[in-house]
Design brief:
Layout: E1 3-8, H1 20-23, H2 28-41, E2 45-50, H3 54-67, E3 70-74, H4 83-91, E4 96-100, E5 122-125, H5 130-147
Parallel strand pairs: 1-2, 1-3, 3-4, 4-5
């Protein structure tokens, strides 16, 4: 079965507790279960990984070259600061979709610049937890299209 890796970056393990007015009230565990169901319904196996450490995220992206057909990446604050994460996405040669629960363009000015967008196949943002579900569905579609 095709595999989609979903990566959550720093502080996203605190979903449901952290700024619910921005990120919603759904817990990380509840969202993870929803993402897994969306993957199953779309015909892909989903693996979820979360880390608060940039290097661990880069290591997991590099390992995905051997284990995943596509990646959904919610890099959190690393979106705006990490050239190293950008370079890792560019290096892995599998499609990566950047996803955000909030809409960065409706937030602080520094959040309006993504260092990752230019090396991702697309970006989904601003739909709350549904952004992650939509991104998994999009990743499944990319995997299917590549196999046809």
């Amino acid at each position: 079965m095709p595999r989609v890796l979903v990566i959550f970056g720093p502080n996203l393990n605190l979903l449901g507790e952290r700024e619910p007015e921005v990120y919603g009230g759904e817990s990380f565990e509840a969202l993870s279960a929803r993402i897994e169901k969306a993957g199953e319904a779309s015909g892909v196996e989903v693996e979820i990984f979360q880390s608060n450490h940039e290097g661990a995220i880069i290591d997991r992206l590099q390992a995905a070259r051997q284990t995943a057909h596509a990646v959904v990446l919610n890099p959190g604050g690393l979106t705006h600061t990490s050239v190293a994460l950008r370079d890792a996405v560019a290096a892995i040669a599998i499609p990566v979709i950047e996803a955000h629960l909030s809409n960065p363009f409706r937030r602080e000015p520094f959040r309006r610049r993504s260092l990752l967008a230019s090396v991702c196949v697309g970006t989904i943002q601003g739909f709350g937890a549904e952004s992650m579900v939509l991104a998994v569905r999009a990743a499944a579609g990319l995997v299917r299209a590549a196999r046809d």
